[in-house]
Amino acid sequence: MLAVGLEVGSILGVILSAGFVYVELGRFATPQVPKTRFDESKAIVAYIVGLFVGIPLALVWIFFEVAVASGGWVSAILDVVLLVAAGEIAQTVMLRSHYFGFTAAGPFYALALRAGIGGLLTIGTVAQYLGGRTTALGSVLAVVQSLALVAIQVTAGLRGLLPVPTASSVIRQRVAGFFLQVVLYGLTALGGFYGTTYGVAGAVLAILGAAYLYWDARPTVLAPPRPKGPAPGGAPSSSRYERLPSSSDKRKRSD
């Protein structure tokens, strides 16, 4: 049964993660845009790197779920901290490498990396579920948890690249992002402690929370790079990314 769980988890993880990369990154590649915003071969490499990084992290996720289910909160905290920290470190190291470089295309490679990690985390969830007694609601929980894991990873990768004006703001952003990931992972793992019904509800909340945070950061991080030189008004730009106009900005201009 373990082999079946690993096979099903692999298929589901690849469908969810590769599907995200194809749909989301595809919005910024030709023919959807006049010129592709990133190197497609590097995006594929980043995704594969994410799959390899996700192998040990899938074990950490299993340990976290087991700790939550058994009420071992100290172990659960250590596991989730390791899970979050490993993803952040992997993204930072990759984007600062000579191959990828710290360029305006970095967010796309970060998303590919994070999607790969999330896809591998689903293997742990599905394999653990299929290793026990299966039910219809339990199958729903495994799928919803898998969606949540991919959503949490890509959201964390995107929000970690939000432009900030000062070094102290960077620290606050990292701490806030770290805390948000811990909360979302905790919601995703609720089923082990409170039961399948609450587990589905927790995972759905995690998906909704991650989706909101992702779409909140998306216009800023994935906006076209600001042209070199001073920003309008003579003030220098403090970000590599140009913020897309919000609805309030449009109303002000129309007034």
Mean pLDDT: 85
Q: How many structural domains does the protein architecture include? A: 1
* Rg on CA atoms, Å: 19 Å
% residues in beta strands: under 5%
Query: What are the secondary-structure elements, in order, as H or E?
Result: HHHHHHHHH
Can you count the helices?
9
Uncertain residue ranges: 231-250
**Percent helix range:** over 70%
Structural class: mainly alpha
What oligomeric state best describes the polypeptide chains here? single chain
The biggest beta sheet reads:
none
User: How many E strands?
Assistant: 0
The best one-word shape is: globular
Distance between the termini: 64 Å
Explain this structure to me?
With 255 residues, the protein is an all-alpha fold. It has one domain. It has 9 helices and no strands. Helix 1 packs across helix 5, helix 4 runs antiparallel to helix 5 and helix 5 runs antiparallel to helix 6.
Give a concise summary:
With 255 residues, the protein is an all-alpha fold. Helices cover 74% and strands 0% of the residues.
Helix and strand layout, with pairings?
Blueprint lengths: L1 H25 L13 H31 L2 H23 L10 H25 L5 H24 L7 H22 L2 H4 L1 H26 L25 H8 L1
